[in-house]
Amino acid sequence: MPKKSSPNRRRFLAASLQASAAAVAAPYVITSKALGDAVTPPASDRIVMGGIGMGNMGSGDQGAFLGRPDVQYVAVCDVRQKWRDDAKGRVDGKYGSKDCAAYIDFRELLARDDIDAVHIATPDHWHSIMTIAACRAGKDIYLQKPETLTLREGPLMIQAARRYGRVVSGGSQRVLEDYRDIVNPCWAGELGAIKSIDLAIGPRSMPCYLPAVATPPDIDWDLWLGPAPWEPYNPGRCDGNFGTGGNSWRSYIDYSGGSLTDWGAHNVGGTIFAAGLLNEQPTSMTWHPATSDGKEAAYVTLVYPSGVELHCNRPKQLWPGDTAATVSQERGIVIRGDGTSITPKPVPSYRGNGGIYGDFIECVKTRERPFRDLELCVNTMTAPHMVAIAQRLERSLEWDRSAQRFMNDEEANRLLDRARREPWTL
Amino acid sequence: MPFDTTTLDSPFAALAAFDWGADAAPLSVIDAAVVAAHGDAALTANLEKRLGSIISGASSRAAKEYACRKLSMIGTAASVPGLASLLTDPDESHMARFALERIPAPAAGDALRQALGKVRGDLVIGMISSLANRRDTASVKPLANFLAGDAKIAAAAASALGRIATVDAAAALAAAKVQPGPVADAVIDARLACADALLAAGNRGAAKAIYEAVAAGIGDAPTTRRGRALRTAARSGILAALDDTIGQTIRRGFMAAWLALALLVPMAHAEVVAPAPSATAKQAAESVLAAIAAGDADLRAVALERVRYGLHGTWFTEALVTKLPTLDPRRQVEVLSALADRGDVAAVAAATSLLKSAGDADVRLAAIRVVGKLGRGADVPALVVALAGDGSIPAAARRALVDLSGPDAATAIRKAAETGSASSRVTILDILVERRDRGAVPLLVAAAGGDDAAIRQAAMRGLAAFGGPNEIPAMVASLIKSSGDERKAAELAIVRVCTSSRDAEAAANAAIASYEAADEASRQVLLPALARIGGPKVMAMIDAMLADPAKRPQGLDALSKWPDATVKDQLLELFGKATDPQDKDLLLGTLIRIAPLPDNKLDDGQKLDLLVKTMALCQRNEDKAKVLERANAIRTIETFRFVVPYVDDPAITESACGSVVELAHHQKLRDAHKEEFTAALDKVLGITKNDELVERATRYKAGQTWNRQKKN
Prior knowledge:
The structure holds two protein chains of two kinds.
Chain A: H1 9-18, E1 47-52, H2 56-66, E2 71-77, H3 81-95, E3 101-103, H4 106-110, E4 117-120, H5 127-136, E5 140-143, H6 153-163, E6 168-170, H7 174-177, H8 180-187, E7 194-199, H9 221-225, H10 235-238, H11 259-274, E8 284-288, E9 299-303, E10 309-312, E11 326-329, E12 333-337, H12 355-366, H13 374-393, E13 397-400, E14 405-406, H14 410-414
Parallel strand pairs in A: 1-2, 1-4, 2-3, 4-5, 5-6, 7-10
Antiparallel strand pairs in A: 7-12, 8-9, 8-13, 9-10, 11-12, 13-14
Helix pairs in contact in A: 2-3, 5-6, 6-13, 8-11, 11-13
Chain B: H1 9-16, H2 27-36, H3 41-56, H4 61-74, H5 80-84, H6 93-100, H7 106-115, H8 122-133, H9 140-146, H10 151-164, H11 167-174, H12 182-200, H13 204-218, H14 225-242, H15 257-264, H16 279-293, H17 297-309, H18 314-323, H19 329-342, H20 348-357, H21 361-374, H22 380-386, H23 393-403, H24 409-416, H25 422-434, H26 441-448, H27 453-466, H28 472-481, H29 484-500, H30 504-517, H31 520-533, H32 536-547, H33 552-559, H34 568-577, H35 581-594, H36 604-617, H37 621-631, H38 637-643, H39 653-664, H40 667-672, H41 674-687, H42 691-701
């Protein structure tokens, strides 16, 4: 029988307080393959990995890491039994063993000293707590997007990653892979200095008032909720599909920023990568209410320190005409430059082999920063978070990056973060 | 106009009776009022009073939760007593904190602090967490008192002190007497957080003292991953405290989070100056240089991080460069990699030297990366030589030439494209294209007319990317000169310029002008390209050919290359009249190709209609299979229903299964017709022998997505 954690989390907590944090829940058994072969490096050169959150994206991430010869996958964790069992089954099937450990509580997985790195693909409300805990445990992290749920989480996560010298890669593979048609001309200087961007961006998340349904036995509901407010179980509240219309956690404000941050991580990420704004955060958000005649919908304009204006959902009738210094992208992105002559810059790319996953693994080995370094992801996510706050408050705001606060708007600052349900702390 | 608060009566009555699952529509009125209350003290007070009645009344947990959320946005000191009364209730405590944590009034902090002594267990941790998020400096003493108590609470208190991160908080943590275990771990983490914050505030001495104390407590040889991470934190902190070369960029007045950003921003070329280093910076440099050569991988990583993002100034780059020859190859690779990220051009000469002289291939690769990131035009010849190297060297050199952006780089690369062997010139022409070097267009035009077929093809690849109307004559000349695969590629290059470039219409006119000016033999070569470009002028030419029996085959061939479905009726009519099997095949293949093209010439219904008609014309299973494989580009339920019956036809079932699965990939379509898709996917799973289809169908049935594997 594979070693599996008890569903009784409190028992684990009590035990963990008595034992060393380095206690190993299940030993990693070196098999006959340990010495490696022509394709597989010896065990000592493989990155030992585990996964937390094994649902939709987690299983995809798991597949990518599991398929790498330089990764030894040893543990999975999910609060849902089916996803946990399925994930363990994939690992055991791959290696022809029953050695993969399966955990309900992520802290048990993080307590294993043999694990070098983890991938995290839980709902967004867990990302910051798990990332910081993993950094403290000395793990490197591949973190699914959207990396943050609130504006305050980002700096704290970066701080943990830098403090403990961890490699933390965000999980938007699309930023480099799907936006070449806007990235290449921008970096080649073909638009001149970037001046304005129009971007179609999805709706923000909403409150959840779904009725209570009997909690099924295969989910640890309290642990699924974790730091989020207690609310009764309903499958529509916690389903892991990609819907944002009310049948998925991505729809609801306690667990996600909605399509605004989900697709925002991709679209804003790709856009500000193209426009060279990855190291910037917006300084102002201008709220444009819908016109009373209904002809123009509401939209938000963000302005970056370099002067670039990012219009989110600006009605097309308000767009300036395209010029030779305009590029557009099928997902509703238009970037406009001033047509001046500027020096081309080489487009950054992944390190190693195997796309964004290979980039992460390569950086785990070399200790370099990955293509989607956490800091760049946090900068990316500030934009959709700010749009959400401007939309919620229906007014314009200004942002002080150094203080990480809105200027002259105490109510907006209230929305920087939220209280976490005990006993979870940031 | 003042807000009419009587409009709130009914929504608040609904809220009083609200529970999960009830109609939430009335709550939207309250939501809007909360937004409208900004700057409206009277409305705020009115709302606070109403919301306060909810939380103090007999409403459901859901209603009280809603009220707390709204008070978190607009609550003032007036709401604090009501919220504070909920702090001791295990069911309501969190949501009361949800509001109190956000209310800026000092009374909210007072209430949370006072509750520390009134609650037990996890609720204490909740209060501590909220006080930490408020950075409540008045909590330092009460929090310190928890450090010696219950372990879970003590750990939370330590973390909170790390978030508050004042000198007092740091002192309280330093004084904590705790046994090894989770509380001690939390204390160490918190001490490091305090040190980071103190450093960010400019208090280098206090920060360094904490880092050193933590480092001493960990020892030189931690045995656990966690211990190694702590040592990394302490050692990098000590270096940061010593490294005052970028001290002026530290953002004062904010929490420690931005310390990391301020310290670790890579140097840009322009920022690399050579200020005289301070004694402490020299001390940090000596530590870094020693660690780089040492055997401890963690400490090397700390040192290399400092190389990448700290110790600004050419003086340190030069010290590293001097150290390079003394290191073994593995260490040289690490230092070169860090120097590439450091961005100081003072490292280029040493890298170029190693590129030429190092015996270890990995060192040469790392040196190439430095030259590519920091080099200039003068370094191009060395990289061109490396293009002909062994193993991974050519690919690295190619990447370096693509990346090279220093002075004169573009000019030097263009010059290199004009000399050397044909294979070298081809590679460099491709590099110019990858660099998107539009300044290379004259060079590409000249190369497109040359005698070497490989060079011509490379030039045409470049002109396909950057060409316009002015380059069309040269491209046409190159096409006419070509044969075989080169001709196909040249044809597509011209089509691309005439359909996708910024001045596509003028380019197409230039291509037509070239056709009209050409002799008959050349026209035959150019016609397929014109047919792929399309447009009324070309259609007139094709019509004329179809009407001329001598030119009909040429016209049919041109029509088969038409770029969109506007010719569908013409194709169907010609198919109906055709008697030659080869003509029928050509026309049928064209219909299958054009039907689902995503060019907005037809709507989805018209596309499917055309595909259904085409299916009816198919006699052979291979043609039917092609129809099914093209169908999945029309993502509608009607297409799905068209495809599904063919799953039962053994001769074409795999094609049908493939299209069913591809259509199921689209979640909105799948979810809107869940039962139909589930039944079809079950059928696919019972029939297909294709492993990938099995995996995909299984995932889609389970409501999961499937990531297409992309090539690097």
